[in-house]
Amino acid sequence: MPGGSASLSSFRIMAALLVGLLCCLPGVFAEIDSVFRSRPDLYPPALTIEHSVPGKVTPGYIFVGPYEAANSGPYIYDNEGVRHFRFPIELLSLTPSQNLVWSGWGSSGPGNAHGMHVCKYKGEDHLCFFQGAQQNGYCRGHGVIMDNRYRTVKTVVPGGGMASSDMHEFLPINDGKTALLTVYQQRQFDMSLWNVKTGMGWLMESIFQEVDVETNEVLFEWKSLDHVDPTVSYTYPGHTDTSGTGLDPRSPWDYFHINSIDKNQEGDYLISSRHTSAIYKFPARMGQ
């Protein structure tokens, strides 16, 4: 039919134009794979910036910690990248794929890495981050301090008999002499008020410490149950995928969920809580 022939001819013309366009573009990749001669075991995630305004981007590096990826760990990328074309054709656009600078997978320790940042330790810049095993809404692990050759020079753990810290905060302060860190600790608690069970159930207590980096001595400790009643929580047992049911120690009710800690020049601590939707400020004398 004439109409069908015209449509077929138009399709062939469009296909020929598309093939010609592809042949003229030397940098076309359907999938970007990186192979590193010094680390053939490494398959880093591809970091692509969808929108960038170069004039407003400060030169430097991008720190990421892929969450439960095949190659979990701390990664550093540049913020310049190499531009590639992306397909299908209707999504044709130039997007920068960032160049990998360093990966800590397999060398910095097992598990996920969180919160990598530049910190001061003994008067010099270092890399600091938390590394550990992912749990449901929290982690079990320790703080890591690396020098400018990516060597671990110090690991930091809680004091006072607590086995491990949590991912939400690891912040060396005072030139790296002390560090702020979070701890998530299961506690038995009467859950009758929330109709979870009659009598004792399980609750997750949020704790933070300021510790001496060299000795792990606890300089300050704060526990949520000593200051914040669970009745003020906005997240009830079993209501989210990370809130916990409160029925057993494997699923304690996370009523507080500490998110971050900071300390100002006056010595006051600031902490944020996700599940009470609040920020708390208090002086160091309120601790233990």
TrEMBL record:
Lineage of source species: Eukaryota, Fungi, Dikarya, Ascomycota, Pezizomycotina
Signal sequence segment: 1-30
Keywords: Signal
Record InterPro entries: Arylsulfate_ST, ASST-like
Protein's UniProt name: DNA, SC012
Pfam families: Arylsulfotran_2 (PF14269)
